[in-house]
Amino acid sequence: MSNFQVVKHPLIQHKLSILRRADVSTKEFRELVDEIGMLMAYEVSRDLPLQDVEIDTPVAHMTAQELAGKKLAIVPILRAGIGMVDGILKLIPAARVGHIGMYRDEETLTPVEYLVKLPTDIAERQIFLVDPMLATGGSAILAIDSLKKRNANNIKFVCLVAAPEGIKAVQEAHPDIDIYVAALDDHLNEHGYIVPGLGDAGDRLFGTK
Ligand SMILES: O=P(O)(O)OC[C@H]1O[C@H](OP(=O)(O)OP(=O)(O)O)[C@H](O)[C@@H]1O
Ligand SMILES: O=c1cc[nH]c(=O)[nH]1
Ligand SMILES: [Mg+2]
Predict the structure, then answer these.
(1) Which residue ranges traverse the bilayer (predicted)?
(2) Catalytic site positions
(3) Tens of pLDDT along 63-91?
(4) What is the pLDDT of residues 89-128, one digit of tens each?
(5) Which ligand lies nearest the alpha carbon of 131?
(6) Nearest C-alpha to atom 3 of ligand 2 is from which residue?
(7) 201: which of 18, 132, 146, 186 fits an S-S bond (Cβ 3.0–4.6 Å)?
């Protein structure tokens, strides 16, 4: 079974509590998603491989360590996932960015895929699949299906707020995928929204409602 982790760092929890507030402006919401994305990247990148490198400090020669040049790709699920990309790129600027466009049909809550644009060597890359919200799990499952269809298997799913229903669904569909969330909320309401959640992340991020 996959690794499922709630990242409880105090900075993440503090910023997430501000993000949830109904009176937060679009500008603040965008800045907070960016910052939390960066803080989540710190945790998710914890096991990236290192290699020895010989360097000279002003004082002495030493064997230091650097990232082993593992190829990375950040893949946001549009639209809301876009909000997390820049924060992660601040820490890992050489990462490539792929996009998976998807929206939930409001009646059926079934995800509809409308765009897949990925680096050509996606199968060789460690992928951070990002979306602030994991509700029924339908969108994440379809995005992972889409990546696996293209032979990408090294995937970590990074999300801010998750419902237990979504975690269970993703773990059942894709037991090999590690999941990192900033919060595990209580339940989904009758409209498929996470409770207490933060509302519609895409609309809050882009000011579309
Ligand atoms: O787990 P699920 O039940 O599939 O729901 C989660 C999805 O819903 C939201 O996207 P939405 O459909 O609102 O699209 P948007 O990002 O364009 O607003 C969210 O960003 C996830 O992608
Ligand atoms: O609560 C939810 C559920 C799905 N998508 C969102 O943006 N918010
Ligand atoms: Mg939305």
Answers:
(1) none
(2) 104, 108, 200, 203
(3) 999 999 779 999 999 999 999 999 999 99
(4) 999 999 999 999 999 998 999 999 999 999 999 999 999 9
(5) 1
(6) 193
(7) 132
ipTM: 0.97
Long-range (24+ apart) CB contacts under 8 A made by 97-104 are 97/73, 98/73, 98/74, 98/122, 98/127, 99/75, 100/75, 100/76, 100/129, 100/143, 100/146, 100/147, 101/77, 102/77, 102/78, 102/139, 102/142, 102/143, 103/79, 104/135, 104/136, 104/138, 104/139, 104/192
120 Cβ neighbours under 8 A, 6+ residues apart = none
Asked if 77 and 127 count as a contact pair (C-beta separation under 8 A), the reply is no
* Number of the ligand closest to the Cα of 79: 1
Nearest CA to 37 out of 74, 78, 79 is that of 74
Residue 53 is classified by DSSP as E
* Most ligand 2 atoms within 8 A of CB, residue of 130, 142, 167, 198 to mutate: 198
Tokens of 42: 């710190």
* Residues belonging to the chain: 209
Task: Give the pair of three-digit tokens for residue 73.
Answer: 């790709």
pLDDT at 40: 97
> What pLDDT shows up at residue 1?
62
> Which ligand 2 atom is nearest residue 188's CA?
1
Asked whether the beta carbons of 110 and 159 are under 8 A apart, the reply is no
